[in-house]
Amino acid sequence: xxxxxxxxxxxxxxxxSFKAVQVKSYLDTHRPDIIFECHQMPAYPQQAWQFxxxxxxRHQGANIGFIxxxxxxxxxxxxxxxxxxxxxxxxxAVKPYELLVEYLGVNTNPYTQQSYVLTEQHITELRQxxxxxxxxPSDIWALLQTADEVLDYRQAELKYQACRLTIEPGGDxxxxxxxxxISDIVQFLAx
Length: 191
Prior knowledge:
By secondary structure, the protein is α/β, with parallel strands linked by helices. The protein has one domain (4-188): Alpha/Beta hydrolase fold, catalytic domain (Rossmann fold), CATH 3.40.50.1820. Helix content is 36%, strand content 20%. The protein contains 7 helices and 8 strands. The chain has helices at residues 18-30, 45-58, 71-83, 96-99, 120-129, 153-159, 182-188, and strands at 4-8, 35-38, 64-69, 86-90, 105-108, 115-118, 140-145, 164-168. The strands form 2 sheets. Strands 2-1-3-4-7-8 form a 6-stranded parallel beta sheet, sandwiched between helices. The chain has a two-stranded antiparallel ribbon with strand order 5-6. The longest helix is centred in the first third of the chain and has 14 residues, at 45-58. The chain is globular and about 40 Å long. This is Esterase YqiA. It holds the Pfam family UPF0227. InterPro entries: AB_hydrolase_fold, UPF0227/Esterase_YqiA.
């Protein structure tokens, strides 16, 4: 069976995000044997999780690895625990249920122009998806940049301290220079 990388984008992002496009381009050129799954994620947490489960179900028995950015990193942590696979997290959100409270109400995804309403129920769903204890830290690699303007990198540094950690000074939430790590990411995912 062909190996699979599932890329999970962040909040209000899309498969057209720069990092997702860079990963696809790298795989097309260097690893065309890897199936790349990168889809528009549902805006609501429980629906997003069910969508991830459906993608994994389509690849039953395959070697699967996750790459998750921001909120996608939060969901990839859950996927890593649930499906016993590896995950690479890029500036992952650690407590999105605290951050997204300020987005309660109507939001519009700047990529898709889709409008949706975030409610307290969705904040509860995020809390339910949280992984309190990482049981296999060797299966996670977190890449953080200290000048992330959206998330405090120290939260992720603490949560993923037992995991493989790359902390770069400066940068921003998009993770400047991400393309430098793609080949190592694919290798880490053991695909």
